[in-house]
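User: Predict Sigma-54 dependent transcriptional regulator's structure from this.
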Amino acid sequence: MTQPKRAKILVVDDDTVVLKAVTSILQREGYPVVAVDDAVEGLAAAKDPSIDVAVLDINMPHLSGMDLLKAIKAERPDVEVIMMTAYATVETAVEAVKAGAYDYLTKPFENIDDLSLTVGKAAERKALKDRTRALEEALTARSQFEDLIGQSSQMRAVFKLVETVSHSTATVLIQGESGTGKELVARAIHYRSARKDKPFVAINCSALTETLLESELFGHMKGAFTGATGNKKGLFEAADGGTIFLDEIGDVPPATQVRLLRVLQEGEVKRVGANEPVKVDVRVIAATHVDLTRAKEQGKFREDLFYRLNVITIDLPPLRDRPEDVPLLAHHFLKMYAAKLAKKVTGFTPRAMEALTVNRWTGNVRELENVIERAVVLTSNEVLDVEDLPPGFQESPQAGSPVEVFSLAHLPYAQAKRLAMRAFERRYLTALLERNNNNVSSAARAAGVDRSNFRRLLKQYEVAGRTMKTRKGEGNSPLEVA
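Assistant:
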Protein backbone atom coordinates (compact mmCIF):
# COMPACT_ATOMS: atom_id res chain seq x y z
CA MET A 1 0.00 0.00 0.00
CA THR A 2 1.38 3.39 -1.05
CA GLN A 3 0.99 5.97 1.67
CA PRO A 4 0.22 9.58 0.74
CA LYS A 5 3.41 11.24 2.00
CA ARG A 6 2.12 14.77 1.61
CA ALA A 7 -0.75 14.44 4.11
CA LYS A 8 -0.27 16.87 6.99
CA ILE A 9 -0.78 15.44 10.49
CA LEU A 10 -1.79 17.26 13.69
CA VAL A 11 -0.78 15.51 16.93
CA VAL A 12 -2.23 16.75 20.24
CA ASP A 13 -1.12 15.17 23.56
CA ASP A 14 -0.30 16.84 26.89
CA ASP A 15 2.25 14.08 27.61
CA THR A 16 5.37 15.54 25.99
CA VAL A 17 7.16 12.16 25.91
CA VAL A 18 4.33 10.56 23.93
CA LEU A 19 3.99 13.69 21.79
CA LYS A 20 7.67 13.56 20.77
CA ALA A 21 7.53 9.82 20.14
CA VAL A 22 4.45 9.98 17.91
CA THR A 23 5.85 12.98 16.06
CA SER A 24 9.16 11.18 15.46
CA ILE A 25 7.43 8.03 14.16
CA LEU A 26 5.26 9.97 11.71
CA GLN A 27 8.08 12.20 10.51
CA ARG A 28 10.18 9.11 9.72
CA GLU A 29 7.30 8.01 7.53
CA GLY A 30 7.58 11.28 5.62
CA TYR A 31 4.59 13.14 7.04
CA PRO A 32 4.79 16.85 7.91
CA VAL A 33 3.64 17.04 11.55
CA VAL A 34 2.23 19.83 13.70
CA ALA A 35 2.81 18.85 17.35
CA VAL A 36 0.82 20.58 20.12
CA ASP A 37 0.83 19.77 23.85
CA ASP A 38 -2.37 21.67 24.73
CA ALA A 39 -5.93 20.79 23.61
CA VAL A 40 -7.08 24.41 23.31
CA GLU A 41 -4.08 25.26 21.12
CA GLY A 42 -4.79 22.05 19.20
CA LEU A 43 -8.28 23.29 18.33
CA ALA A 44 -6.79 26.47 16.88
CA ALA A 45 -4.19 24.48 14.94
CA ALA A 46 -6.91 22.21 13.49
CA LYS A 47 -8.44 25.20 11.68
CA ASP A 48 -5.46 25.18 9.32
CA PRO A 49 -7.01 24.03 6.00
CA SER A 50 -3.85 22.05 5.16
CA ILE A 51 -4.39 19.62 8.11
CA ASP A 52 -5.56 16.24 6.80
CA VAL A 53 -5.41 13.93 9.84
CA ALA A 54 -5.53 14.68 13.58
CA VAL A 55 -4.15 12.27 16.23
CA LEU A 56 -5.60 13.19 19.64
CA ASP A 57 -5.13 11.98 23.20
CA ILE A 58 -8.42 11.49 25.05
CA ASN A 59 -7.42 12.54 28.56
CA MET A 60 -6.16 16.13 28.57
CA PRO A 61 -6.72 19.09 30.92
CA HIS A 62 -8.82 22.16 30.03
CA LEU A 63 -10.44 20.43 27.06
CA SER A 64 -10.85 16.67 26.75
CA GLY A 65 -9.81 14.83 23.65
CA MET A 66 -13.44 13.82 23.07
CA ASP A 67 -14.58 17.44 23.17
CA LEU A 68 -11.70 18.38 20.89
CA LEU A 69 -12.78 15.62 18.46
CA LYS A 70 -16.34 16.96 18.35
CA ALA A 71 -15.13 20.55 17.90
CA ILE A 72 -12.81 19.58 15.04
CA LYS A 73 -15.51 17.56 13.24
CA ALA A 74 -17.94 20.47 13.62
CA GLU A 75 -15.41 22.92 12.17
CA ARG A 76 -13.63 20.64 9.68
CA PRO A 77 -15.76 17.52 9.05
CA ASP A 78 -13.38 16.43 6.28
CA VAL A 79 -10.44 15.95 8.71
CA GLU A 80 -9.87 12.31 9.70
CA VAL A 81 -9.37 11.93 13.48
CA ILE A 82 -7.58 9.12 15.35
CA MET A 83 -8.00 8.91 19.13
CA MET A 84 -5.34 7.65 21.59
CA THR A 85 -5.75 6.63 25.22
CA ALA A 86 -3.94 4.70 27.94
CA TYR A 87 -7.30 3.78 29.52
CA ALA A 88 -9.12 1.96 26.76
CA THR A 89 -12.68 0.79 27.27
CA VAL A 90 -15.30 -0.40 24.85
CA GLU A 91 -17.56 2.48 25.86
CA THR A 92 -14.99 5.19 25.06
CA ALA A 93 -14.14 3.52 21.76
CA VAL A 94 -17.80 3.42 20.73
CA GLU A 95 -18.31 7.03 21.82
CA ALA A 96 -15.28 8.16 19.80
CA VAL A 97 -16.45 6.41 16.63
CA LYS A 98 -19.97 7.79 17.04
CA ALA A 99 -18.47 11.28 17.38
CA GLY A 100 -16.75 10.86 14.02
CA ALA A 101 -13.35 9.34 14.84
CA TYR A 102 -11.79 7.25 12.09
CA ASP A 103 -10.04 4.85 14.51
CA TYR A 104 -8.98 4.31 18.12
CA LEU A 105 -5.50 3.36 19.40
CA THR A 106 -4.35 2.20 22.85
CA LYS A 107 -1.18 3.54 24.48
CA PRO A 108 1.50 2.29 24.76
CA PHE A 109 1.49 0.93 21.21
CA GLU A 110 2.21 -2.81 21.03
CA ASN A 111 3.74 -2.16 17.63
CA ILE A 112 4.71 1.28 16.32
CA ASP A 113 3.66 0.06 12.88
CA ASP A 114 0.07 0.17 14.16
CA LEU A 115 0.30 3.94 14.42
CA SER A 116 1.91 4.33 10.99
CA LEU A 117 -0.59 1.97 9.35
CA THR A 118 -3.63 3.65 10.93
CA VAL A 119 -2.46 7.14 10.02
CA GLY A 120 -1.65 5.94 6.50
CA LYS A 121 -5.15 4.54 6.01
CA ALA A 122 -6.74 7.71 7.42
CA ALA A 123 -4.62 9.86 5.10
CA GLU A 124 -5.60 7.74 2.10
CA ARG A 125 -9.26 8.05 3.05
CA LYS A 126 -8.92 11.83 3.29
CA ALA A 127 -7.15 11.97 -0.09
CA LEU A 128 -9.89 9.83 -1.66
CA LYS A 129 -12.60 12.13 -0.32
CA ASP A 130 -10.69 15.16 -1.58
CA ARG A 131 -10.41 13.63 -5.06
CA THR A 132 -14.10 12.72 -5.07
CA ARG A 133 -15.08 16.24 -4.09
CA ALA A 134 -12.81 17.74 -6.74
CA LEU A 135 -14.34 15.43 -9.36
CA GLU A 136 -17.86 16.38 -8.35
CA GLU A 137 -16.95 20.06 -8.57
CA ALA A 138 -15.42 19.52 -12.00
CA LEU A 139 -18.50 17.65 -13.23
CA THR A 140 -20.72 20.42 -11.91
CA ALA A 141 -18.58 23.00 -13.68
CA ARG A 142 -18.72 21.04 -16.93
CA SER A 143 -22.50 20.98 -16.80
CA GLN A 144 -22.61 24.74 -16.37
CA PHE A 145 -22.75 25.23 -20.12
CA GLU A 146 -26.42 24.35 -19.64
CA ASP A 147 -26.75 27.52 -17.56
CA LEU A 148 -25.89 29.51 -20.68
CA ILE A 149 -29.52 29.45 -21.71
CA GLY A 150 -31.02 31.26 -24.64
CA GLN A 151 -32.92 30.89 -27.87
CA SER A 152 -32.25 34.36 -29.24
CA SER A 153 -30.13 34.84 -32.33
CA GLN A 154 -27.48 36.61 -30.21
CA MET A 155 -27.07 33.65 -27.85
CA ARG A 156 -27.11 31.11 -30.68
CA ALA A 157 -24.20 33.05 -32.19
CA VAL A 158 -22.39 32.90 -28.82
CA PHE A 159 -22.94 29.13 -28.56
CA LYS A 160 -21.57 28.62 -32.06
CA LEU A 161 -18.48 30.73 -31.33
CA VAL A 162 -17.84 28.87 -28.05
CA GLU A 163 -17.89 25.53 -29.86
CA THR A 164 -15.52 26.85 -32.53
CA VAL A 165 -12.90 28.48 -30.30
CA SER A 166 -12.88 25.60 -27.79
CA HIS A 167 -10.76 23.52 -30.14
CA SER A 168 -8.00 26.13 -30.42
CA THR A 169 -5.49 27.49 -27.93
CA ALA A 170 -6.03 31.14 -28.90
CA THR A 171 -6.51 33.79 -26.22
CA VAL A 172 -10.15 34.80 -25.82
CA LEU A 173 -11.52 38.14 -24.61
CA ILE A 174 -15.11 38.02 -23.32
CA GLN A 175 -16.84 41.38 -23.16
CA GLY A 176 -20.18 42.14 -21.56
CA GLU A 177 -21.94 43.88 -18.71
CA SER A 178 -21.78 42.50 -15.18
CA GLY A 179 -24.14 39.60 -14.67
CA THR A 180 -24.24 38.42 -18.29
CA GLY A 181 -22.42 35.12 -17.58
CA LYS A 182 -18.84 35.73 -18.69
CA GLU A 183 -17.35 33.08 -16.40
CA LEU A 184 -19.89 30.52 -17.64
CA VAL A 185 -18.66 31.16 -21.19
CA ALA A 186 -15.04 30.74 -20.06
CA ARG A 187 -15.86 27.43 -18.34
CA ALA A 188 -17.78 26.24 -21.39
CA ILE A 189 -14.74 26.91 -23.59
CA HIS A 190 -12.38 25.11 -21.19
CA TYR A 191 -14.53 22.01 -20.71
CA ARG A 192 -15.00 21.62 -24.46
CA SER A 193 -11.28 21.89 -25.15
CA ALA A 194 -8.43 19.39 -25.11
CA ARG A 195 -7.48 20.90 -21.73
CA LYS A 196 -10.72 19.78 -20.06
CA ASP A 197 -8.92 17.31 -17.75
CA LYS A 198 -6.49 20.00 -16.56
CA PRO A 199 -7.17 22.82 -14.08
CA PHE A 200 -9.55 25.70 -14.70
CA VAL A 201 -8.42 28.55 -12.45
CA ALA A 202 -10.44 31.77 -12.09
CA ILE A 203 -9.49 35.05 -10.42
CA ASN A 204 -11.26 38.39 -10.13
CA CYS A 205 -8.52 40.91 -10.87
CA SER A 206 -10.46 43.84 -9.40
CA ALA A 207 -10.85 42.21 -5.97
CA LEU A 208 -7.17 42.42 -4.91
CA THR A 209 -4.56 45.10 -4.34
CA GLU A 210 -1.66 45.28 -6.80
CA THR A 211 0.76 43.44 -4.48
CA LEU A 212 -1.69 40.68 -3.64
CA LEU A 213 -2.76 40.32 -7.27
CA GLU A 214 0.83 39.82 -8.45
CA SER A 215 1.45 37.33 -5.64
CA GLU A 216 -1.72 35.40 -6.54
CA LEU A 217 -1.03 35.39 -10.28
CA PHE A 218 2.73 34.83 -10.35
CA GLY A 219 3.58 33.47 -6.88
CA HIS A 220 6.36 34.72 -4.63
CA MET A 221 9.57 33.69 -2.93
CA LYS A 222 10.16 33.63 0.81
CA GLY A 223 11.00 37.12 2.05
CA ALA A 224 9.86 38.86 -1.16
CA PHE A 225 7.66 41.16 0.92
CA THR A 226 6.32 41.48 4.45
CA GLY A 227 4.29 38.37 5.25
CA ALA A 228 5.94 36.18 2.60
CA THR A 229 6.96 33.44 5.04
CA GLY A 230 7.55 30.80 2.39
CA ASN A 231 7.68 30.10 -1.33
CA LYS A 232 4.31 30.06 -3.06
CA LYS A 233 3.18 29.02 -6.52
CA GLY A 234 1.03 31.50 -8.40
CA LEU A 235 -2.20 30.73 -10.23
CA PHE A 236 -0.43 30.59 -13.60
CA GLU A 237 1.70 27.72 -12.32
CA ALA A 238 -1.36 26.12 -10.71
CA ALA A 239 -3.15 26.27 -14.07
CA ASP A 240 -0.24 24.72 -16.00
CA GLY A 241 -1.66 22.60 -18.81
CA GLY A 242 -5.11 24.09 -18.31
CA THR A 243 -6.88 27.44 -18.48
CA ILE A 244 -6.73 30.61 -16.40
CA PHE A 245 -9.70 32.98 -16.41
CA LEU A 246 -8.79 36.60 -15.67
CA ASP A 247 -12.07 38.32 -14.80
CA GLU A 248 -12.23 42.13 -14.88
CA ILE A 249 -8.92 42.34 -16.76
CA GLY A 250 -9.63 46.03 -17.39
CA ASP A 251 -8.94 46.81 -13.72
CA VAL A 252 -5.40 45.38 -13.71
CA PRO A 253 -2.76 47.99 -12.66
CA PRO A 254 -0.17 49.09 -15.28
CA ALA A 255 2.76 47.29 -13.60
CA THR A 256 0.87 44.00 -13.55
CA GLN A 257 -0.11 44.51 -17.19
CA VAL A 258 3.61 44.39 -18.08
CA ARG A 259 4.04 41.06 -16.30
CA LEU A 260 0.91 39.63 -17.96
CA LEU A 261 2.28 40.62 -21.34
CA ARG A 262 5.45 38.62 -20.63
CA VAL A 263 3.40 35.54 -19.82
CA LEU A 264 1.46 35.83 -23.07
CA GLN A 265 4.56 36.54 -25.16
CA GLU A 266 7.10 34.20 -23.61
CA GLY A 267 4.95 31.55 -21.92
CA GLU A 268 6.80 31.98 -18.64
CA VAL A 269 6.23 33.57 -15.24
CA LYS A 270 8.64 34.95 -12.68
CA ARG A 271 7.61 34.75 -9.05
CA VAL A 272 7.81 37.96 -7.04
CA GLY A 273 11.35 38.06 -5.64
CA ALA A 274 12.65 35.29 -7.93
CA ASN A 275 15.55 35.54 -10.38
CA GLU A 276 14.65 32.70 -12.73
CA PRO A 277 11.42 32.40 -14.74
CA VAL A 278 9.25 29.28 -14.84
CA LYS A 279 7.80 27.95 -18.09
CA VAL A 280 4.00 27.48 -18.12
CA ASP A 281 1.54 26.15 -20.68
CA VAL A 282 -1.67 28.03 -19.94
CA ARG A 283 -4.54 29.18 -22.11
CA VAL A 284 -5.68 32.66 -21.11
CA ILE A 285 -9.33 33.70 -21.20
CA ALA A 286 -9.97 37.25 -20.05
CA ALA A 287 -13.19 39.12 -19.40
CA THR A 288 -14.20 42.69 -18.73
CA HIS A 289 -17.21 44.98 -18.51
CA VAL A 290 -14.90 47.90 -19.40
CA ASP A 291 -14.53 49.20 -22.96
CA LEU A 292 -10.88 48.17 -23.45
CA THR A 293 -10.65 50.01 -26.77
CA ARG A 294 -11.47 53.29 -25.03
CA ALA A 295 -9.22 52.41 -22.08
CA LYS A 296 -6.39 51.77 -24.56
CA GLU A 297 -6.98 55.11 -26.27
CA GLN A 298 -6.99 56.86 -22.88
CA GLY A 299 -3.68 55.25 -21.94
CA LYS A 300 -5.21 53.21 -19.10
CA PHE A 301 -4.59 49.87 -20.79
CA ARG A 302 -1.46 48.81 -22.66
CA GLU A 303 -1.95 48.63 -26.41
CA ASP A 304 0.36 45.63 -26.85
CA LEU A 305 -1.46 43.70 -24.10
CA PHE A 306 -4.81 44.62 -25.63
CA TYR A 307 -3.85 43.06 -28.95
CA ARG A 308 -2.43 39.96 -27.22
CA LEU A 309 -5.73 39.46 -25.40
CA ASN A 310 -8.02 40.46 -28.23
CA VAL A 311 -7.26 37.51 -30.52
CA ILE A 312 -10.83 36.21 -30.40
CA THR A 313 -13.60 38.36 -28.93
CA ILE A 314 -16.93 37.12 -27.62
CA ASP A 315 -19.50 39.83 -26.93
CA LEU A 316 -22.21 38.80 -24.49
CA PRO A 317 -25.43 40.75 -25.05
CA PRO A 318 -27.25 42.29 -22.07
CA LEU A 319 -30.50 40.57 -21.13
CA ARG A 320 -32.59 43.63 -22.13
CA ASP A 321 -31.43 43.10 -25.73
CA ARG A 322 -32.71 39.51 -25.83
CA PRO A 323 -36.11 39.58 -24.04
CA GLU A 324 -37.15 36.38 -25.81
CA ASP A 325 -34.68 34.56 -23.54
CA VAL A 326 -36.34 35.80 -20.33
CA PRO A 327 -39.10 33.12 -20.16
CA LEU A 328 -36.57 30.36 -20.78
CA LEU A 329 -34.19 31.66 -18.12
CA ALA A 330 -37.01 32.33 -15.66
CA HIS A 331 -38.28 28.75 -15.94
CA HIS A 332 -34.75 27.42 -15.58
CA PHE A 333 -34.19 29.33 -12.33
CA LEU A 334 -37.68 28.47 -11.10
CA LYS A 335 -37.02 24.76 -11.56
CA MET A 336 -33.59 25.04 -9.96
CA TYR A 337 -34.71 26.88 -6.82
CA ALA A 338 -37.95 24.95 -6.43
CA ALA A 339 -35.90 21.75 -6.33
CA LYS A 340 -33.28 23.28 -4.04
CA LEU A 341 -35.90 24.52 -1.57
CA ALA A 342 -38.14 21.44 -1.96
CA LYS A 343 -41.15 23.62 -2.86
CA LYS A 344 -43.87 22.80 -5.37
CA VAL A 345 -43.74 25.85 -7.60
CA THR A 346 -44.46 24.94 -11.19
CA GLY A 347 -44.80 28.06 -13.34
CA PHE A 348 -45.76 31.69 -13.86
CA THR A 349 -49.02 33.44 -14.55
CA PRO A 350 -49.12 35.37 -17.85
CA ARG A 351 -49.12 38.65 -15.88
CA ALA A 352 -45.98 37.65 -14.01
CA MET A 353 -44.19 36.54 -17.15
CA GLU A 354 -45.10 39.74 -18.97
CA ALA A 355 -43.79 41.80 -16.04
CA LEU A 356 -40.52 39.86 -16.16
CA THR A 357 -40.20 40.18 -19.93
CA VAL A 358 -40.67 43.96 -20.13
CA ASN A 359 -38.27 44.67 -17.25
CA ARG A 360 -34.98 46.27 -18.37
CA TRP A 361 -32.77 44.00 -16.20
CA THR A 362 -29.90 46.38 -15.52
CA GLY A 363 -28.29 43.57 -13.48
CA ASN A 364 -28.78 41.12 -16.37
CA VAL A 365 -29.13 37.36 -15.82
CA ARG A 366 -27.78 37.59 -12.27
CA GLU A 367 -30.57 40.02 -11.34
CA LEU A 368 -33.21 37.77 -12.92
CA GLU A 369 -31.88 34.79 -10.97
CA ASN A 370 -32.05 36.75 -7.71
CA VAL A 371 -35.64 37.85 -8.41
CA ILE A 372 -36.76 34.27 -9.11
CA GLU A 373 -34.97 32.90 -6.06
CA ARG A 374 -36.65 35.54 -3.88
CA ALA A 375 -40.07 34.76 -5.35
CA VAL A 376 -39.69 31.01 -4.80
CA VAL A 377 -38.56 31.56 -1.21
CA LEU A 378 -41.44 33.87 -0.31
CA THR A 379 -44.37 32.47 -2.27
CA SER A 380 -47.04 30.22 -0.83
CA ASN A 381 -48.53 29.61 -4.27
CA GLU A 382 -47.88 26.87 -6.77
CA VAL A 383 -47.80 29.39 -9.60
CA LEU A 384 -45.84 32.64 -9.28
CA ASP A 385 -47.89 35.81 -9.84
CA VAL A 386 -46.92 39.49 -10.02
CA GLU A 387 -47.57 39.80 -6.28
CA ASP A 388 -44.72 37.32 -5.68
CA LEU A 389 -42.25 39.58 -7.49
CA PRO A 390 -40.49 42.60 -5.93
CA PRO A 391 -42.64 45.76 -5.55
CA GLY A 392 -41.36 47.46 -8.71
CA PHE A 393 -42.84 44.72 -10.88
CA GLN A 394 -46.35 45.30 -9.53
CA GLU A 395 -46.75 48.79 -10.95
CA SER A 396 -49.29 48.86 -13.76
CA PRO A 397 -48.99 51.96 -16.03
CA GLN A 398 -52.09 53.20 -17.81
CA ALA A 399 -52.46 52.25 -21.46
CA GLY A 400 -50.63 54.59 -23.77
CA SER A 401 -48.86 56.44 -20.98
CA PRO A 402 -45.24 57.55 -21.52
CA VAL A 403 -44.15 55.19 -18.74
CA GLU A 404 -45.69 52.19 -20.50
CA VAL A 405 -44.26 53.13 -23.88
CA PHE A 406 -40.80 53.59 -22.37
CA SER A 407 -40.99 50.21 -20.62
CA LEU A 408 -41.53 48.53 -24.01
CA ALA A 409 -39.12 50.64 -26.05
CA HIS A 410 -36.19 48.25 -25.64
CA LEU A 411 -38.17 45.32 -27.14
CA PRO A 412 -38.47 44.33 -30.80
CA TYR A 413 -41.51 45.97 -32.43
CA ALA A 414 -43.55 42.77 -32.84
CA GLN A 415 -43.04 41.71 -29.24
CA ALA A 416 -43.70 45.20 -27.86
CA LYS A 417 -46.92 45.38 -29.91
CA ARG A 418 -48.08 41.97 -28.67
CA LEU A 419 -47.47 42.88 -25.02
CA ALA A 420 -49.15 46.27 -25.41
CA MET A 421 -52.20 44.60 -26.98
CA ARG A 422 -52.42 42.09 -24.16
CA ALA A 423 -52.28 44.91 -21.61
CA PHE A 424 -55.01 46.80 -23.47
CA GLU A 425 -57.27 43.74 -23.75
CA ARG A 426 -56.88 42.91 -20.05
CA ARG A 427 -57.80 46.45 -19.03
CA TYR A 428 -60.72 46.51 -21.49
CA LEU A 429 -62.17 43.27 -20.10
CA THR A 430 -61.68 44.47 -16.51
CA ALA A 431 -63.46 47.76 -17.19
CA LEU A 432 -66.27 45.99 -19.05
CA LEU A 433 -66.90 43.63 -16.14
CA GLU A 434 -66.90 46.49 -13.63
CA ARG A 435 -69.39 48.45 -15.75
CA ASN A 436 -71.70 45.41 -15.81
CA ASN A 437 -71.34 44.67 -12.07
CA ASN A 438 -69.29 41.52 -12.77
CA ASN A 439 -72.18 39.95 -14.67
CA VAL A 440 -70.49 37.83 -17.35
CA SER A 441 -73.59 37.49 -19.56
CA SER A 442 -74.22 41.25 -19.61
CA ALA A 443 -70.53 42.00 -20.26
CA ALA A 444 -70.43 39.47 -23.10
CA ARG A 445 -73.50 41.05 -24.74
CA ALA A 446 -71.96 44.50 -24.37
CA ALA A 447 -68.76 43.29 -26.02
CA GLY A 448 -70.67 41.52 -28.78
CA VAL A 449 -68.98 38.23 -27.91
CA ASP A 450 -70.51 34.82 -27.27
CA ARG A 451 -70.72 34.11 -23.50
CA SER A 452 -68.49 30.98 -23.66
CA ASN A 453 -65.87 32.81 -25.74
CA PHE A 454 -66.04 35.75 -23.33
CA ARG A 455 -65.35 33.43 -20.40
CA ARG A 456 -62.40 32.00 -22.33
CA LEU A 457 -61.01 35.53 -22.77
CA LEU A 458 -61.45 36.26 -19.07
CA LYS A 459 -59.56 33.13 -18.19
CA GLN A 460 -56.87 33.77 -20.82
CA TYR A 461 -56.16 37.26 -19.50
CA GLU A 462 -56.76 36.31 -15.86
CA VAL A 463 -59.34 39.04 -15.46
CA ALA A 464 -61.84 36.74 -13.78
CA GLY A 465 -59.41 35.78 -11.03
CA ARG A 466 -58.96 39.42 -10.02
CA THR A 467 -62.39 40.97 -10.52
CA MET A 468 -65.05 38.33 -9.90
CA LYS A 469 -65.69 35.01 -8.28
CA THR A 470 -65.13 32.07 -10.59
CA ARG A 471 -66.48 28.58 -10.57
CA LYS A 472 -64.23 25.81 -9.34
CA GLY A 473 -61.60 24.99 -11.93
CA GLU A 474 -61.58 28.44 -13.56
CA GLY A 475 -58.59 29.84 -11.65
CA ASN A 476 -55.31 31.12 -13.00
CA SER A 477 -53.15 28.83 -15.06
CA PRO A 478 -49.39 28.95 -15.46
CA LEU A 479 -47.81 30.26 -18.61
CA GLU A 480 -46.36 27.40 -20.57
CA VAL A 481 -43.11 28.11 -22.38
CA ALA A 482 -41.64 25.51 -24.69
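The chain has a mean pLDDT of 83.
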